[in-house]
Amino acid sequence: MIGSWMRWALLGLLWLDGFLVGVMALAFLPLHIGSVPFPISAVFAAIANYILLWCSATLTEGFARFGSLIAFMIAFFVLAVGGPGGDVVVPQDLTVFLLLGLGLILPVFAAFAGWLPDAKGDAKPVVAGSGE
């Protein structure tokens, strides 16, 4: 069993990873293939946030499991604010909504659909027709 201080240290590292996922997703959001916008970082952000939420769910049952998603949102909104020269990292197009939608809605849906393990590490299987 992991000690209490180790559990919080791991959660802190997962929260830091959530912040870094937000920074990297925004950095690669304006990626283009030729002249076509190709926001692959939104898909990677969704997968990374789900994995971070999965790992957090194995460490705690409380609201702290959503810390990596909160750190992702903080990174997004900090970079969305303009700098002193008025330059903004976030592009002004629909790929921003795609990033927020995939990066946040998929992991939150997974949390409320019961697709995450409990703090003991036991996954809760979803059986079709079980009524749960």
Short description:
The chain has helices spanning 4-27, 40-57, 67-80, 95-112, and strands at 32-33, 36-37. By secondary structure, the chain is mainly α. The chain has a two-stranded antiparallel ribbon with strand order 1-2.
Any overview of this molecule?
- The chain has 132 residues and is mostly helical.
- Helix content is 56%, strand content 3%.
- It contains four helices and two strands, in the order αββααα.
- A two-stranded antiparallel sheet has the order 1-2.
- The two termini are 29 Å apart.
- The model has no long low-confidence stretch (mean pLDDT 87).
Which percent bin holds the helix content? 55-70%
Q: Figure out the total of helices.
A: 4
The global form is: globular
Average residue-wise pLDDT: 87
- Strands, total number: 2
Largest beta-sheet details = 2 strands, antiparallel
Proportion of beta-strand residues: under 5%
Low-confidence stretches: none
Which secondary-structure class do the elements indicate? mainly alpha
Order of secondary-structure elements: HEEHHH
Give, in spatial order, the strands making up the sheet with the most strands: 1-2
Task: Kindly report how far apart the N and C termini lie.
Answer: 29 Å
